[in-house]
Amino acid sequence: MLNVEGLTIRVGARAIVTDFSCTLEQGRITCLIGPSGCGKTSVLKWLAGILPPAITADGAITLDGQPIVRPHPDLAYQPQSDALFPWLSIAGNAALGLEMAGRSRKAARAEVVAHFGAFGLAGCEDLYPEQISGGMRQRAAFLRTIVQDSRFVLLDEPFSALDAVTRLRMQDWLCARLEASPRGVLMVTHDLHEATQMADRILVMSAGPGPLVADIPILTPRESRTEAALAETRTLLKSLLLET
Length: 244
Ligand SMILES: Nc1ncnc2c1ncn2[C@@H]1O[C@H](COP(=O)(O)OP(=O)(O)OP(=O)(O)O)[C@@H](O)[C@H]1O
Description:
Mean pLDDT: 96
Order of helices and strands: EEEHEEEHHHEHEHEEH
CATH superfamily of the largest domain: P-loop containing nucleotide triphosphate hydrolases
Strand order of the largest sheet: 6-7-8-3-9-10
Number of domains: 2
Bound molecules: adenosine-5'-triphosphate
Shape: globular
Strand content: 15-25%
Number of helices: 7
CATH class of the largest domain: Alpha Beta
Number of strands: 10
CATH architecture of the largest domain: 3-Layer(aba) Sandwich
């Protein structure tokens, strides 16, 4: 279990996040939503240990009750931008996390290339990032993150550049992967449909810096999440976002 307590993030004297707390459990998807600029990305960057030096933060983080130093191998992070290296092929980029974790280049490449079909990247193995579309780059970055062995995954709008059908496919792929290999996921999204379809719980941040506005468990099993079953939750989320 990953626990965050009392996280406050400041840019100079200005607080952008105040008193943020959450618990991530393995096998559960937590979606983080909130208005643009409320600090969602900053929270993920803090968790990943990559906040820029100009941004300061106070807060406690523990993994199974023990404080951890980040970057940490049990926390994989996919930034909002695809952040692919232009000089590496798509297969090379996707395999990078596994290589850094100690796999040989050949083994890492074989492991990621096995998913290229499901990710709509078949035939792109030896192309470079500038040769493929933004949606394809985002899928390669997602693959690089999700194949890692980390117990927790931090995803910042991982499907924002995808068309509607591809997005649904990737959502299904992620849910199936997590069932086969349970990990804790914290995913930022602006898409209420995505959040309610995928999440076990949804954390709502406020526009102004302040504690979470709401922490909403989604109890309906994923296979029963019809439009009707989720309508009430979506209405609640919309009204919370409008209020903030
Ligand atoms: N490097 C930085 N220097 C100065 N201010 C920053 C920096 N990074 C973020 N901020 C400010 O911190 C606040 C929170 O930004 P952040 O990107 O975390 O929000 P967000 O909720 O993820 O936004 P969005 O939904 O638009 O991606 C914003 O006011 C932003 O301008």
